[in-house]
Specification:
Layout (H helix, E strand, L loop, with lengths): L2 E8 L3 E3 L4 H4 L3 H9 L5 E3 L6 H9 L12 E7 L12 H9 L5 E5 L6 H13 L8 E6 L10 E2 L3 E2 L4 E7 L6 E9 L11 H26 L6 E5 L5 H10 L10 H6 L6 H11 L8 E8 L3 E8 L1
Parallel strand pairs: 4-5, 4-6, 11-12
Antiparallel strand pairs: 1-9, 2-3, 6-9, 7-8, 10-13, 12-13
InterPro entries: ACP_syn_III_C (IPR013747), Thiolase-like (IPR016039)
Protein name: 3-oxoacyl-[acyl-carrier-protein] synthase III C-terminal domain-containing protein
Organism: Luteipulveratus flavus
Amino acid sequence: MTAILELASYAPVATPIAQHQERLGVSDADLRRMTRAFGYDRVAADREVTEAELVYGAASKLTTLKGREEDVRYVLRPRTTRSASAYPASPLQDVVTELGLHRARTFALNEQACASGLLALDLAGALLAREEDPEATALIIVGEKTYGAVASVIPGMAVLGEGTAAVLVGAHGERDRLVGYSATTQPVGGGRLAMDEAGTKEFGAVYSERLTAVIAAALEVAGLTAQDLAMYLPHNVGRILCQRTGSALGLKRDQIFTDNIGRYGHCWGADPFLNLASVTELGLLNPGDHYLTTSVGLGATFAAAVLQH
């Protein structure tokens, strides 16, 4: 069964979002709403840190990768933006070479935007299930650079950060096993990274219904109910919205992890893994606990995954 063998994260030093107001291009009123209603406090973003440094910062921390480079068959790069570097530069390929992953097939996933991180976890397991070598692994590297205002803020929704996660995945494992996954796409208007006004209204109208549906589907695949969940790890978009979704599942506030909204900002598809790293470090999950994580990508894709710690 698909399992996370090791997880590492990296983030630039976070600074108050008020220091980024001019760069983000937001008004005083929007800034107040982001901090008071959405829960954003600081954002992990640094203009001087390159995409390659962000990616390598997480991947280089994987201790079990060292000495097992030949076991890595796939490197998956979930993205929301198509590319942050001009051709033929490839920060990811540079990092793969630096890590010595010469045997790995490397490719990106970007059709599901910020939900691509959970897709990569499910896909990595499916690919490894076809491998004859039980020691074969896959490496997911997720998280992106926030170049320019358009890639730094989703108007009325989120402030984007640069936290990254490196996730080493195996076809077998005792901890953090993927037991249920579901995703669905609801076409929403808007031809850019940020939706237009009509698309934003349509997205808001279908958000709760579509997210509830994929959560129910993932729980059904896992053979569980919401009452079996120890924790809910939503993506880092809007504290009130996350708590509302968790409460609808019957979870208590301390079972809904939203601390990283104010700590990092919304770090694209890396949110589920950054949050897992945090709750693991804090000792909030016990062996055998089931937990839910969700992610939503503009466009719009809704995804949910249930794992067993």
